[in-house]
Amino acid sequence: MELGLAGKVALVTGSSRGIGRAIAELLAAEGCAVMLTGRDAAALAETQRAIASKGGKAKSQLAELREPTAPAALVDVVKHDFGRLDILVHNAGATKRGDFLALTDDDWADGFALKFFAHMRLARAAWPLLKAAGGAVLAIGGNGAAKPTSDFTIGSSVNAAVAAFHKALSDIGKRDGIQVNTLHPGHVDTGRMRRQMEARIAKSGRDMAAEIEAYRRELNVPRIGVPDDIAAMAAFILSPRGRWLHGATIIMDGGEIEML
Q1: What letter does residue 101 receive in the DSSP assignment?
Q2: Which regions in the chain score pLDDT beneath 70?
């Protein structure tokens, strides 16, 4: 299926690994010029090389988006290097799990700092470029927003806030011609998930494959997701073929959440 993304410029945060990298690589394969950003210079460079090796176009910019001035500075780099911005993917951010009574104010502040406040500032800074291009914003949240658990109080709260913010932003998008949506992945086989599995392995004594299979059965899903699953959905949403989707929050988790 031709998605009609050739010639567009995309900025993907947290694009050096995992879901963000998969989205960046697929957008580049579909003909977008992609600005990669994250905090790991070596991982960004490797992602940029991987895109270039397949004929794609990408640049990278180190950024600590928790810093209040960093989002606007990143948008300035995109404008300087590419002259426009059509697609903004809010992907960066991780939150701490643990006992609610043991989590500190700093843990909560850090959870919101990158995944919520940085992306709020980034959307605000990028809005004029997106408006000029008739562009699109996609937030990558997490299905914890719809399935809060006792060990994920920060993550569930942050992801719910992400969806609420982007739903509100979509109303402004109607006025300004900018598509805005949120995509909540379920459990996806990334380095982050495997680190969670290591803690389980320490208790169970199983190997990684067996532990992931046990986790799959607990979740009651046909399989654990992979980053390319989320990237494929993201690319469709962001393409002209998905343009009528607006103000939506989509849960893509293999059926883990059975009803909202």
Answers
A1: T
A2: 259-260
- Does the predicted TM-score (pTM) go above 0.85? yes
pLDDT tens digit sequence for 157-196: 999 999 999 999 999 999 999 999 999 999 999 999 999 9
The pLDDT of residue 94 is 87
CB atoms within 10 A of CB 218: 10
How far is residue 130 from each of residues 79, 84, 125, 176, measured CA to CA in Å? 11, 8, 10, 9
Which residue, chain included where needed, has tokens 């690589």? Answer: 25
Buried b / exposed e along 43-62 (16+ C-beta atoms within 10 A): bbeebbeebeeeebebbbbe
In the structure encoding, which two tokens stand for residue 69, read together? 């001035």
The SS3 assignment for 57 reads strand
Query: Collapsing DSSP states into helix, strand and coil, what is residue 148?
Result: coil
Q: Which two tokens stand for residue 44?
A: 């960004």
127 CA to centre of own chain = 18
Q: Are 51 and 20 in contact (CB under 8 A)?
A: no
